[in-house]
Design a protein that fits this description.
Elements (H helix, E strand, L loop, with lengths): L10 H7 L5 H27 L3 H12 L3 E2 H8 L3 H13 L3 E5 L7 E5 L1 H6 L7 H10 L3 H17 L18
Antiparallel strand pairs: 1-3, 2-3
Helix pairs in contact: 4-5
Amino acid sequence: MNESVEPAPTAQPEKARGPQLGEVLEFMRLLWAVDHGLQSTSKRMESQLGITGPQRLVLRLVGRFPGITAGTLAQILHVHPSTLTGVLKRLEKRGLLERKSDPLDGRKALFALTEPGRALDIPSTGTVEAAVQRVLSKMNRARILHTQDVLTALAEELGAITPSSGPMDDGQPRG
């Protein structure tokens, strides 16, 4: 009887790649690695730049949209406005953001960068943004859009965003 026998897998490739986890667990493992990398880089940014990753993202958004409200920032970031309150207060206290009352609705605050805030509103090495930029520069547009679609679907499934939500969704294809 000449049955073909599969060779036993060697220990070396498994050590290099890790055990075969299957699609779901492998995806979750990679998400965990990204989350860990975000947290580590954010801590490094705080010691080097004086602001965390989330604080820098808020600064960059306020720099892009001067006069933005906390509510609009929360929509863009897909967080509850109360989640943003602490970040905004810390940035204000550090003199990086200024808050002004909305002349049309005094209950709303409009945010803008101060001069020190504008100094941080530039591309910088050692930031999450710089790492994302390096990775995206190596990918073609179709691959980036596909990845965004997967991450969007996952965020929707987890309830972090609602389908077709956010001020950036204008119904047009991304590009």
